[in-house]
Amino acid sequence: MMNILASEYGAVYYVDAIKNIIVPYALNRHEFAEIGDTFTDEMAYTDALRLFGEKYVLEEDRELLFGEFAPEKLLDNNAAKTRSAYVRVIVNKMARYTEIKFIGTADNRNNGSFVLTLEDKNDIIRKQQEKAALEKRYNEVLRTLSAEYTEIYYADIERDLLVPYCSEGNISARTGEANFSNLAFSKAVRLFSEKLVAQEDSKMLREALSISNIRGSLGEHHYFQTLYKNEQGKCCKVKCVRCDEGKTVSTVVLGFAVTEENQQAL
Questions:
Q1: What is the pLDDT of residues 26-79, one digit of tens each?
Q2: What count of Cα atoms within 13 Å lies in the side-chain half-sphere of residue 71?
Q3: Structural domains of the chain, count
Q4: CB of 133 within 8 A of CB of 145?
Q5: Do 82 and 143 fall into the same domain?
Q6: Which of 134, 209, 223, 264 is most deeply packed, by most CB within 10 A?
């Protein structure tokens, strides 16, 4: 078991929660080299846990570390045999999310023995956080636009992809396409501008919703709005709102609606 875990995790230790001992077994990742001498044969497990927490774990994560992996918690007969938590560990002066896992051995209920593993999960956790933040902002934008716009679309301009969210006015059908989700974003904009926009505004709107203009306009701002006349001569508006927060604009939400505002680009 120890050999298998040693091949999968950055650091592996043996812990006896009853005898309060910790024994280093393997240190495989360079990112843990700095903390490699924290858990030594000469230290009690509780001392090693306290030193590790105070020296390498961010202060706001220490309560979780000390509470989750205290010997009495590990020895709780009602507790799960495997326990894990993510804490931010200072490695090379940078806080990185690290998974700390205690895996009970086959007879750990009788002798309190565990295998302790450390593994860097920073890239995974950061990506999950970025994804959650993007989804939160996306949902907030949708809720806001839904109150004012009858047609709402999500666009991934990085992949030239368009996804309808709600379409009361049925823009896609009016262009002769059954479903805009089958079209590239740039092609949908071209069809919309040619068939559903007054001739005098067609070029202006096509340029406003071009991928290059969206990136340029949303580089410093979160949204822009453009007014135009549709094929029936009614004044309409389209609002383009950025969802992502990366260096390059990649995802936006677009809302379309008829409006009473004077025709001008805002």
A1: 776 656 666 665 666 678 999 999 999 999 999 999 999 999 999 998 888 766
A2: 18
A3: 2
A4: no
A5: no
A6: 209
The predicted model gives 219-223 an average pLDDT of 87
Q: Which of 94, 120, 146 is the last residue of a domain?
A: 120
* Distance of alpha carbon 176 from the chain centroid: 37
Q: Specify whether 135 is located in the same domain as 200.
A: yes
Q: For the purposes of burial, counting CB atoms within 10 Å of the CB of 260, is it exposed (0-12), middle (13-18) or buried (19 or more)?
A: exposed
Query: Are residues 104 and 10 both part of a single domain?
Result: yes
From 120, 149, 175, give the residue that closes a domain: 120
Cα gap 257→259, rounded to integer Å: 6
Of the candidates 263, 252, 245, the one whose C-alpha atom is nearest the C-alpha of residue 210 is 252
Percentage, residues of the chain above pLDDT 70: 79
Question: With 0-12 CB in 10 A as exposed, 13-18 as middle and 19+ as buried, what is 129?
Answer: exposed
The parent domain of residue 59 ranges over 2-120
Give Cα separations from 203 to 29, 38, 85, 161, 226 (angstroms). Answer: 57, 66, 55, 21, 13
Q: Tokens for 1, please give them.
A: 């078991």
Say if 125 falls within a structural domain: no
CATH number of 91's domain: 3.30.450
Let me know: does 53 contact 74? Beta carbons within 8 Å: no
Domain match, 209 and 227 both: yes
